[in-house]
Amino acid sequence: QVQLVESGGGLVQAGGSLRLSCAASDLTFSPYVMAWFRQTPGKEREFVARITWSGGVTIYADSVKGRFTISKDNAKKLVLLQMNSLKPEDTAIYYCTVKNSPGTGYVYWGQGTQVTVSS
Q: What single string gives the DSSP state of each residue in 48-81?
């Protein structure tokens, strides 16, 4: 079982920036996709961004396109989420997750890191 550990959350004013990191416990594992989701109380967990591990192809939710950038460090098994121009509606718990192969679901999830954007 691969463990994912997120870090980098915190409190920031609207318009500010944060960078989230997600580290995988097993440096030998090779995911198909790593992604970020977020969730606020009473709402479904929503997709934020994803990146394919081999090709670095990225996909973003419309709500974050142009403001957030997902990237990866293959050697360190890290996935990063640079969040700029943050808005109060970005406030949520952000989760890192992994998909092992095409056509499968996200199988491992981190514990989440809180991002709070004040207006």
A: EEEEETTT--EEE-TTTTTTEEEEEETTTTEEEE
How many other C-beta atoms can be found within 10 angstroms of the C-beta atom of residue 67? 15
Residue 2 binned pLDDT confidence (cut-offs 50, 70, 90):
confident
- The counts of H helices and E strands in the chain are 0, 11
62-71 pLDDT per residue, tens: 999 999 999 9
With beta carbons less than 8 A apart as the criterion, state whether 18 and 10 touch: yes
| pLDDT given for residue 118 in this prediction | 97
- What are the φ/ψ torsions at residue 26 (nearest 5 degrees)? -105, 110
Residue type, 21: S
CA nearest neighbour of 72 among 84, 80, 62, 61: 80
